[in-house]
Amino acid sequence: MTLRHVFKTSLSGLKANKSRSLLTILGIVIGITAIILVMAIGQGAQNLILGELQGMGSKTIVVVPGKQPSGPSDVAQTFSDSLKQRDLDLLQRKENVPTLGHIMPVVFGGDTVSYQAETYRPTVFGATPLISTIFNIYAKQGRFFNDDDVKGRADVVVIGSEVKKQLFGESDVLGQKVRIKGVNLTVIGVLPSKGQVSFFDFDKMIIVPYTTAQQYLFGIKYFNRFIVQADSDSSVERTVSDIKNTLRNSHNITDPTKDDFFVETQKDIAASLGVITTVITMLLTSVAAISLVVGGIGIMNIMLVSVTERTKEIGLRKALGATQKDILTQFLLEAILLTGIGGLVGIALGAGLSFLVSFVLTKALAVNWAFSFPINGALLGLGVSAIIGLIFGLYPARLAARKSPIEALRYE
User: Rounded mean pLDDT of 292-305?
Assistant: First the structure.
């Protein structure tokens, strides 16, 4: 018997019980859909994170206070006061970090800002005028504060578009005063609507000179971050090394394992986040794959029922000359066709749902969540579905192939 004839016979067997065949592949469809959906969302999240990191540029280095966390329980250690003005002064000296291009001290926190009867709770970000260069964001109206404002602890503020909308509506805002913690700050600039830039939502942020934030808003004498830019891409590693040596000398640290700060490049952050998102995606994919095993067991059960129902057919085919190999191939092919069709439907459904999810997330979160079709996931889904059909269809197929033609013809 030719393979073509066996294929047609298998297809006819499936068409004879359409409802049962559709219900049988449902488990496979759900499993493959879940795998495609999880992998697509994971890839989309990874692309979004890497895109946000690229917004700061490859030369950007972040110095964070506290011991570098090695697990969830260590996150609290990053809220430290180990970065001080002395450290900033030492890092700005060319003899300490010759390849340093720019350095911007940063302080931040959340607080309520008010204007007349209106209130809003934005992120308060204390920085220097370098924030425009580093994040490529400039005032749409008015201006940014300058170095003189930083030195003089000026009571000025630049607000995001959402802050303006919530506090002022369509009214003129330049020259108006907003109030934070009893301190009046004059609005000198408004940012364009830009959304998320390198993990910061500038639309919902107010930016003040870091000296003003330290002195009047937060009452602190330390920094939450140093954002550094090396003078070139090729000097990033040397800059990191010089920063570490300078801070260790400043903090009297001789053992690197006792550092009370850590330094991260964009490459380091991207690699760490890439590993995290990949592990989470693979974990969720593994959970979703369990439904494929359940679907495979369902296929085996249905095939066993089919073998019992078609006992006379098997006996008749054997009596007409069909070999055990022909019967085995026929029933095995039926199982593989079921899972293969389920795999294709699952891939199409998963791709459609993934596109819908990416569209909804883009609109709901106001981020550029690009749709990403996981080709590896599609190939994995097809391969796994075919293997499941082969594994779970083998026992029923062998059972059918071994039936005695005489006893099969007598079966009622």
Answer: 72
Task: Provide CB contacts within 8 A for 133, sequence distance 6+.
Answer: 102
Contacts of 66 (CB under 8 A, 6+ apart): 77, 78, 79, 80, 82, 260, 261, 262
Measured CA to CA, the distance from residue 328 to residue 144 in angstroms comes to 78
pTM: 0.59
Helix 375-401 × helix 266-309 angle, to 10°: 20
Q: How far is CA 2 from CA 15, 271, 329, in A?
A: 20, 53, 11
Task: Report d(CA 412, CA 397) in Å as an integer.
Answer: 20
d(CA 288, CA 385): 13
The residues near 40 (Cβ < 8 Å, ≥ 6 apart) are 350, 351, 354, 357, 358, 371, 372, 373, 374, 377
| pLDDT, tens digit (0-9, with 9 covering 90-100), for 77-128 | 555 788 999 999 999 999 999 999 889 999 999 889 999 889 999 999 999 9
Checking if the pLDDT of 226 tops 50, the result is yes
Beta bridge mates, 63: 226, 263
- Residue 74 to residue 271: CA distance in whole angstroms: 19
Token couple for 411? 């079966």
Both structure tokens of 327? 């019967």
C-alpha 53/C-alpha 163 separation (Å) is 24
DSSP label of 121: -
| 169 three-state secondary structure | coil
